[in-house]
Structure formats: C-alpha cells, structure tokens
Amino acid sequence: MLLEVRELGVEFRTRDGVARAVDGVSLAVDAGETLAVLGESGSGKSVTAQAVMGILDTPPGRITGGRVLFRGRDLLTLKGEERRRVRGAEMAMVFQDALSALNPVLTVGAQLGEMFVVHRGASRKDARARAVELMDRVRIPAAAQRVRDYPHQFSGGMRQRIMIAMALALEPALVIADEPTTALDVTVQAQVMDLLAELRRAYRMGLVLITHDLGVVADVADQIAVMYAGRIVESAPVRDLYRAPAHPYTRGLLESVPRLDRKGRQLYAIKGSPPNLLRIPPGCSFHPRCPMARDVCRTEEPPLYEVPGGRASACHFWRECLRG
Q: Is the dihedral of CA 277, 283, 286, 289 positive or negative?
C-alpha cells in the first residue's frame, strides 16, 4: 500500500476549548488509484491532508495520535529535514486557491524551476527548460513564452494547471489535490479533472482528491471516503456508493447534486448546519440533521460497521439506508 493513514487524530486548542478536527480517521490509497475524500466545509478533509503532508499549523493544531505510513515509513516519526525531503520529491499537494499559493512577485517559470534547483541541484538554465516542459505537459499554450509571466497574468484554470505542474515536477508517487476545481466554471472543472486522471495513469501515481462535490469525482475516483465532523462516516468503491449509499449523510449529499432527470424540481438540501467542533452532539454527530434518527442515535456513537462488498458505514441503521 502506498499510503495508509491509521486512526489519525488532530485537535485545535482555542480560547473557547478544544476542537477535535480529525477524530480517528483511517484511509488508504495504492499506486495508480484515486481516493476521493468528500464532505461539507469543516468536516476535516483539508486538516487531514495537511497532517499527512506535514504542513499543519502548530500551534494551534496538534496531532494527537495515529500513524501516517508512506511506503511503510511512519511520516509522523520523521525529523523536520527528513520530512522535507519526502515532501515535493515523493509526495506533493495541489492547493485549493492557486492565486494564494503561488508567489505573486516571481514568474511561474522561477517557481516551477525552483523544485529542480532545490531538490535536484539543477542550474537555473536547466530549471527554466524543465519548467517549460512541465507547462507543456499540463497543456498551457505557448509555454516557452508564458514561462516568464506572473501568476496574475493567467486565468483561474491556467493557474490551477500550473499548481498541478508544480506538484508533478519531481514525479512524486502520491499527489493530494485539495479542492482543485473550487471557483472554476464547470467546463474548466472537467478539463482539470481529466488532466489529473490522465497524469495519474501516465505516472501510475496515487491520487487523494479532496472535494465537497460528488459530481466532480464520479468518473475519476476508485474509492470514496465520506467525512463528517472529523470522522469517516462511510467508505466504499465509487460505483457501489453512488448506486446505494449506506449512510444518510452520503444519501443527502447525492440528493443535493443537480440532475437532468429532475429538471424543474426543487434541489434537495440537507437540513441544518454542520456541528460546531467545540460542541459535537452526543451519539451520532449527524443525528440532529438525519431523517432516520432514532433514540439510539442520540445516545450511542456508532462504530464504523463493516458492510458487505468491502464497505463501511458509521450508521446504526446502515441496512435500512442501503435499501433506500
């Protein structure tokens, strides 16, 4: 297995109390596979990714337990310099907001080339040539000329392609893409997702795709893990999950996706809001919003039940949910 996250815990200490942003999360992805991590904002998706990459802001964040095994090595035990050598060269991240992630006062060529200078000892001339190659690889037109441009001179979709090129510069085994299509129109979203899928196949890399949009990942993911209030509430192969979700939250997310066969109908929305992580409800954290909630849901936190077909669901009534 390329990456295994086991019982990862992350908390944030604030003036108002301790927020458990990630609570016992376990994930796995192998070479050539795509794992999509889904959930609303605040569910713990990005914090999980930051903990895996070793870029969690500490303080206020703190890893409280678990293991992050990358090619059998526990990344949480590595010293700072060791972790830095892994980051970029063996595993990389595509950030959500490309304009904020890119340095506005450096050309994109300088930022792409820096990877080769720092990690490979390349000369500036060679690094510039490699930057042009990378821009060509992610299909940025006139790369040889545009390598001298600054981030603000590119469209949102082109900036996201530059971020993908930067992540792939050193041909890492694993790429984590955190909301890579946020704020892009649907046509550009499709182009970015197709590009990621194509590059994953070409390099046989593992891809962890973090998103809140089930519609975006339908054609590219192999496995899906659904997060809510810092926990995994369902995991399943992508086709099984779309055909028959085993958790009411997943069902709600699927119902919220616009569909052509429901033209003219009011779009479904999950009632209420995600819980405050400082005051997570007792029992099942989803019960205040769940149409299937019963007394046991309000008092007993469900474990992650094994569901036939290599699936799992943190719902006391997953069998009923499967039946619809």
A: negative
